[in-house]
Amino acid sequence: MTSDELVQTCKDHSFYSWSVQQDVKPLPVERAERIYLYTPDGEKIIDFNSGSMCINLGHGHQGVINAIQKQAQELAYAAPGTATAARARTSKLLAEVVPGDINTFFFTLSGAEANENAIRMARLFTGRQKIIARYRSYHGATNLCMQLTGDPRRWANEPGTPGVVRVMDPNPYDYSFGTTEEEITANNLKYLEEVIMYEGGHTIAAMIIETVTGTNGILAPPKGYLEGLRKLLDKHGILLICDEVMAGFGRTGKMFAFEHGDIVPDLVSMAKGLTSAYMPLGAVGMRDHIAKFFEDKPYWGGLTYNSHPMGLAAAEAAIKALIDEDLIGNSARLGVLMTELMADLKAKHPCVKATRNIGLFGMVDLQKNSRGDRLAPYNGTHPAQGEFAAALRSRGLATFMRWGSFMCNPPLCITEEELRHCFAILDESLSVVDAHMED
Ligand code: PMP
Fold first, then answer.
1. Nearest CA, atom 13, ligand 1
2. Rounded mean pLDDT of 41-52?
3. Sequence-ordered strand ranges (E) for 86-129
C-alpha cells in the first residue's frame, strides 16, 4: 500500500482514540529504526516524541526483538497463576533496579491498569477510600483513571467513579504559590494540608502524582516538594503513589524520576519505558510493608494477561539495554545540551514563551504576543500550530503539540549531532510561528 492507501484503509476500518474520526490525519508508518520513522512512500521522519513518549530505547532494537522472538518460541503465554522463567527473571531484575524496598511487582498491560491496581492496593491496605490527585495530570483512560486525571480528557467522562479529590500541583513556572522554589513548595504543602484537614485525613487512602508531570507541561517538582509531600502524607497515614508511566525508565536522566528527590513512594506505577513499548506491559511496584500486608489477605484484582511472558521478556531485554548502553546517562548528558539549545531558541524567536526540560523530557511553550499570552488557550488551538507542524514535517521531524506547546522527547539513544540537527529544524520552522506574533 502507498502512504495514502494505508491512511485511508486505517481510517475506513479502525477507530482512533481521542478524536473526531473525520479530522484524524494519521502518520503512515511502515518501519522504524532508532529515532527515525519511515513511511511507505520513503519519507524519513525523526520521531521527536518517542512514539507516545514511550519508545525510550529507540526503534528496532535487535536485542529486544531477539528476546521477544525467543520467548514466543519457548512460551508465548502462561496463565496468571503459573510460575515462569520470564516472570522470575523480570520481577527479580525490577527489584534490583527500582530503588528502596520496592521489591514486589504486579504486572498489568498498560499504565491505566497499573494505576487502577495501585489505587486498589492502597484502598485495601489502608481501609480508606478517598484519593487525592492533581489537576495538571493524566493517569489513563479507564473509568477511575479518568477521574484521577485533571486535564480536559476527563470532562466528557464525568461524573465517573466518586472519591477523587483534585488539588493544584505546585507548578513552579507561573509562581502562583511564591517566587522561589522553596516558597512554592512550602505554600503548596500548606494548602494541601488544609485540603487534607477539610477532607479528613483518616478518610484518604493515597495521593497519586506524576513525579514529573508529563503531557500537562513537563513540570518537575520544585525543590523540597517530594520530601515535604512524603512527610505530610506520612503524618496522616496517606500512601504516596508515584505514576512513573511516562517519567520512568531514564526519560528524566535517572532510572525513575522520584530519584531526583530523597524519597521512596509506597507504590510506583510504570508502563511505556518498562518495555520501551516493544510489548504492552505495565506494573505496580510495592514497598515491603504493602507486600507483607497481602501475605495473609486476599488481593481482589487480576487480569488474564497478568505477567504475560512476552511482555516480561521484552521488559527484561529493554531494561538491560537501557543500562548496558548507558542511555540513562545519555539522557542526563544530552538533557544539559537540550537546555542550552532551548535557551538559544528562546533568545532567537519572539514566539517562544518558555522552555524547560529534565533529561530528554522537554517542552517549549509558544506565545502570540510579547505580553506572554499563550499561542493557544487551555484546551484550545491556533492556526499557527498546524503551520508549524507542517513546517517540521517538510524538514523531516514530527512531534506532539498541544495548546500552543510542543514536546521535545526524543528516544534516549539520540546522539548529540542528531539532537543539534533536531533543534536546527525547530529553529528554522519556528519562524512560521513568529510570523503570527500580534505585536
Ligand atoms: N500515566 C501517565 C503519566 C501517562 O502518561 C499515561 C499514558 N500517556 C498513562 C498513565 C496511561 O497509560 P496507558 O495509556 O498505557 O494506559
1. 111
2. 97
3. 102-108
